[in-house]
Amino acid sequence: MGYNVAIDGPAGAGKSTIAKLVAKEKGFIYVDTGAMYRGLAIHFLNQGIQADETEKVIKACQDAEVTIRYENGIQQVYLNGANITSRLRDEEVGNMASMTSAIPEVRAKLLELQQNLARTQNVIMDGRDIGTCVLPNADVKIFLTASVETRAKRRYEELMAKGVPCNLDEIESDIRERDYRDMTREIAPLKQAEDAVKVDSSYMTIPEVVDKIVELCR
Ligand code: DC
Q1: Is 98 in the pocket of ligand 1 (CB under 6 A)?
Q2: Among 4, 7, 33, 37, which is best to mutate for testing ligand 1, by the most ligand atoms less than 8 A from CB?
Q3: Which atom of ligand 1 is nearest to the CA of 95?
Q4: 1-28+123-218 and 30-121: same fold?
Q5: 109 CB under 6 A from ligand 1?
């Protein structure tokens, strides 16, 4: 069994930024489970499937192979052999991933892949249900959160920096909607594991959050 660190939390809390930095400092492999759900979401979108067409989603899962590779230390996500990394962060992909991740067959497809990765390697894995379902025996569990306003502002600034036109109020309501969906779904909802350490990053800098987590990994 590898050394396993689980980071869960709502959209925009900074999980992937923090997990990547902790991975670098500790020499762990970073596993981005959201990217796996997003990879499947792209498969459904490519096939013209709507998020509420559950039977079609389940069937489409059968011929989707999502793999994560590291090229020059940067995560690349492949869907049936095609590199789809540049589409992963699109809003429609995030929304499709949030909606279809509530389907048990979608989760079952990715669960084994995630558990296998953690079995043999030292990993820091981020998502919504890592500490509660995927790696219930993780050595360290973090619940990383921040206020909705802070998360919306961070996302707005990220998009503006990329030159993508956007609206702060819309981003905020999108985040609220996604939080609600992720927290209230029947299977593997987003919630803090009983033995997780809660870290609220609203008023913390990135290095402060990284230091706190590295400290817990001793
Ligand atoms: O972390 P993210 O925004 O890339 O995740 C996209 C969606 O995937 C998120 O809204 C919910 C889903 N997800 C999940 O259900 N379980 C995980 N472990 C990771 C992501």
Answers
A1: yes
A2: 37
A3: 10
A4: yes
A5: no
Per residue in 147-173, pLDDT (tens digit) is 999 999 999 999 999 998 999 999 999
To the question of pTM greater than 0.85 for the whole model, the response is yes
pLDDT band at 120 (very low <50, low <70, confident <90, very high): confident
Residue nearest to atom 10 of ligand 1 (CA): 98
- Of 13, 44, 37, nearest to 185 by C-alpha is 37
Domain at 30-121: CATH code: 3.40.50.300
Instruction: Using pLDDT thresholds of 50, 70 and 90, give the confidence band for residue 126.
Output: very high
Kindly write down the DSSP assignment for every residue of 112-145, as one continuous string: HHHHHHHHHS-EEEEESSIIIII-TT-SEEEEEE
pLDDT value at position 4? Answer: 98
What angle (nearest 5°) sits at the alpha carbon of residue 179, between those of residues 5 and 28?
15
What residue ranges do the domains of the chain occupy? 1-28+123-218, 30-121
CATH class of 1-28+123-218: alpha beta
Angle at 114 between CA 109 and CA 120, to 5 degrees: 140
